[in-house]
Amino acid sequence: MSVRKVVVIPGDGIGTEITEVAQNVIKKVAIHNNLKIEFTTAYAGGAAIDRFGEPLPEETLLVAKGCDAVLLGAVGGPKWDDVEPAIRPEKAILGLRKALGLYANLRPIRVSKMLADYSPLKTEIVAGVDVLIVRELTGGIYFGDKCESEMIDGVEQAWDKELYSVPEISRIVRMACEAAAKRKGRVTSVDKANVLASSRLWRRVAGATAKEYNGIELNNMYVDNCAMQMVLAPRNFDVIVTSNLFGDILSDEAAVIAGSIGMLPSASIGDGPGLYEPIHGSAPDIAGKGLANPIGTILSAAMLLRFSLNEEEAAQRIEQAVDKVLANGYRTQDLYRTGLTKVSTEEMGRLVIDQL
Ligand code: NAD
After folding, report:
1. What is the pTM of this model?
2. 297 lines ligand 1 (CB under 6 A)
3. Can you give the pLDDT at residue 231?
4. Which fold has domain 106-259?
5. Which homologous superfamily is 1-101+271-356 in?
6. Tens digit of pLDDT for each residue in 152-178?
7. What is the spatial distance between Cα 340 and Cα 322, in angstroms, rounded to a whole number?
8. Measuring from atom 34 of ligand 1, which residue has the nearest CA?
9. Where do the domains of the chain lie?
10. How far, in Å, from the CA of 171 to the mean position of ligand 1?
């Protein structure tokens, strides 16, 4: 059996606590499923600035490029708020995305019945939501040509260019179709084809690409309608695929309807090693106190097993273990309510491991 290599980058703030818990969960599932996984720890973010004077040292890049997957906690914190812009902690994430060629961001939003009342939306609207947002990560307006300021006829203006090529669109739509094939088989491609030329190309290519997949149902939706449907009937979505800009906005909207920032995982995927991290930041206000909810990171570890190590069964075991612990009434302080059992970061990890 081949040995799979996972690089763990704890980062800053609660990063150390939550990645340690998630790493222990992977170790337990590895024993159970007979997987050989080797872990290496690397530095990034503020921790790397303190040690090496830069947020993403060459050493970290090298181990990340040579592994199967990277598990990241979070980076940043007030200690590094005043460092010069070129070495800010967040540069580590952008640098990793670039170096690993990560062109797709996958963000699953699941709202189980027992957590539905944490949502700002009505329980009957959100209970049972299970949507996967696939966002293009390296193209579009965030990376297109831009002009900060120019004078035309004495009037100052600025502009950004939205540009997508056929290969960029087809590879992300393929990824969405492949993910949908393991789910309910429905892909919603989101664009603004009534106004934007780049969206019209997106729609044409999405349609042609989805036809390569038997059993996948593709429908197109304008982004403004999608933003409304996300709060009106979020249960109707299975997989959403969209551009960098629209995906940035829609994935945050979708995260909010879940109502609990500490619970949500994410994956950034390309042709090489994938990067897995919870959607939240380093939460410096609660760091080192055992108060952090590790579930977003544990579920990121499940995604790592699913997408980078191709171990679907191990991924599902972790997801089911998390569901059981929540069903048994255990909560970290962010989700604690009277009548439930409050547990620390470490205790939550141990409870999940006990269920595996
Ligand atoms: P944050 O997500 O760190 O925290 C927002 C709020 O949610 C805080 O009250 C925090 O205590 C709470 N929270 C977050 N994760 C939690 C968890 N797992 N369990 C319980 N509560 C949790 O966002 P912020 O406060 O805006 O940013 C803090 C730092 O994190 C900043 O330096 C920011 O730049 C950085 N950041 C990093 C990433 C990343 O590494 N991907 C993402 C966002 C923010």
Report:
1. 0.93
2. no
3. 97
4. Isopropylmalate Dehydrogenase (3.40.718)
5. Isopropylmalate Dehydrogenase (3.40.718.10)
6. 999 999 999 999 999 999 999 999 999
7. 16
8. 76
9. 1-101+271-356, 106-259
10. 31
